[in-house]
Amino acid sequence: MTAPVTRHPALASADPEIAALVAAEEQLQADTLRLIPSENYVSAAVLEASGTVLQNKYSEGYPGKRYYEGQQNIDQVESLAVERAKALFRMDHANVQPYSGSPANLAVYLAFLKPGDTVLGMSLPMGGHLTHGWGVSATGTWFRGVGYGVRRDTGRVDLDEVRDLALTERPKVIFCGGTAVPRTIDFAGFAEIARESGAVLVADVAHIAGLIAGGAHPSPAPYADVVSTTTHKTLRGPRGAMLLSRAEHARAIDRAVFPGLQGGPHNQTTAAIAVALKEAADPGFSDYAHQVVANARALGEGLAARGFDLVSGGTDNHLLLIDLTAKAVPGKLAAKALDRAGIVVNYNTVPYDPRKPFDPSGIRIGTPALTSRGIRASEMGAVAHWIDLTVEAARTGDEATITKVRAQVKTLMDAYPAPGLRVA
């Protein structure tokens, strides 16, 4: 059903087509069980900050050192975001200007490497990120990327392999973290390898920043030279990014972001980041972070009991990576069927996947968004049951079951309204 457009009267008057699509998306987010690990719901306050008149300002430079006048208020907004980031993550320095996670990581390269230098990161098919030196990325084109993986028998990073690669290849930068890593990152172990090999250690915590802020995952602060993160995902902020570092790297990081890669920061996003960081410092955020993990573990247990093959055997965080080979259903087919059932996931490569990335063997699911709605572990058995029914229905072509699951999902979503949405 198409949602009414009167929730955005100015937009509806100026551009009814876009207003209708925005309202329809609000309704879709309200009605569906969003299980993509990188998605979440922001609060009404974060949403409001993202759409303020700060949009109207250009602010090249940093607080107190701008290339434009009229920055009296902007400087205070950015300074608040910086101080809150430093306090929350216990790092010496914070830069809140990167437009997103990929430019933030590219700034790391500009700060510490020259074209052709070696970088060691988790291979993309094993759960890493494109910007950790993978070949099709600029980071793998301009720099020499070397990848580490996970063990076939455990699905976990083998630090002995990482150490051997680091001592052999002598990278300038080592990345830890990724996009499909369901287990705790051993920051201390990576730091020791970086020390032995003379590399800068960068912890990419984009997926788990909210868990770190809430105390549900160990912090990289005592170990990493630089911490790169997006500000959405588990942190529940706007689509943006931050770079945090030790004091000795502050100047290099700042110069890499501006003027190295970017012009003026997006001030409305900076304000929304500041709001999200304030929310993350509230004691209630810790409850949310721990509940995200509890929900993921409960969902994993429910799926394992139904015969699903969980990469690494389960999860320590918000994310589950599932190999559907034993279910005889490709990941893409399963993801599209789940979408029709109102369960939003993404198809995903699994370690040592024999299938192609655009039609892989697995799906990736996570619990941040459903946790933000107030859904708890007691509901994960039902969610696992719906996923099981839908994956089997995808295999057999049973659309009637998919339609039935869709109605049951809608009932659960109605019982747990999503924060920040203007849906009645």
TrEMBL record:
Family: Belongs to the SHMT family.
Annotated positions of the N6-(pyridoxal phosphate)lysine modification: K233
Binding site for (6S)-5,6,7,8-tetrahydrofolate: L124, G128, H129, L130, E248
InterPro entries for this protein: PyrdxlP-dep_Trfase, PyrdxlP-dep_Trfase_major, PyrdxlP-dep_Trfase_small, Ser_HO-MeTrfase, Ser_HO-MeTrfase-like, Ser_HO-MeTrfase_PLP_BS, SHMT-like_dom
Alphabetized GO MF terms: glycine hydroxymethyltransferase activity; methyltransferase activity; protein homodimerization activity; pyridoxal phosphate binding
Upper taxonomic lineage: Bacteria, Bacillati, Actinomycetota, Actinomycetes, Kitasatosporales
Domain Serine hydroxymethyltransferase-like positions: 12-387
Subcellular location: Cytoplasm
Chief place of localization: cytoplasm
Role of this protein: Catalyzes the reversible interconversion of serine and glycine with tetrahydrofolate (THF) serving as the one-carbon carrier. This reaction serves as the major source of one-carbon groups required for the biosynthesis of purines, thymidylate, methionine, and other important biomolecules. Also exhibits THF-independent aldolase activity toward beta-hydroxyamino acids, producing glycine and aldehydes, via a retro-aldol mechanism. Thus, is able to catalyze the cleavage of L-allo-threonine.
Protein name listed in UniProt: Serine hydroxymethyltransferase
SUPFAM superfamilies for this protein: PLP-dependent transferases (SSF53383)
Encoding gene, per UniProt annotation: glyA_1
GO CC aspect terms: cytosol
